[in-house]
Amino acid sequence: MTRSGYRLSLGLIILLAAAAQFGLFDLGLYRITSDESARILTAWGMTRSNALEPFLWPPFYKLFVGSAMRIFPDIFLTPRILVGVTGLVCLASLTWLATALFQDRKVSLVAAILAVLAPQRLIFSVVPLSDIYYFLFVISAAACAASWLRSNRSRFLLLACLFILLAETVRFESGLFAAFLEVLLLYRVGIARDLRIATFLGASVLLFVFPALWALNSFVWYGSLSNLGVVTQQFVGMFGHDYIQALKWAPLRWFIQDTLWNPLTIAGILVVLILSVRQRAMLLWSMVFLLPLLVFSVTTVVSLSTPTAATWRTSGVWTLMMLPFDAVAACWIGGILAQSFRVPRVALAGLLILAILPNAVRSLWYTRDGLFNNETHLAHQERQLDRYVDKKLSHTRAGEALIDSSTNLDYLDVLAFARHPDRLLLTGGGDPIRIGFYEPMRTAYAGRPEADFYLKDRFGLAHGGDLRALNAHHVSLIVVRNPAFIAALDTSPLATRLRSFNDWTVYGLSPTVSNEPWHGAVLKTAPQVSPAG
Question: Which parts of the chain span the membrane according to its record (predicted)?
Answer without folding.
Answer: 81-102, 109-126, 132-149, 156-189, 195-214, 260-277, 284-305, 317-338, 345-365
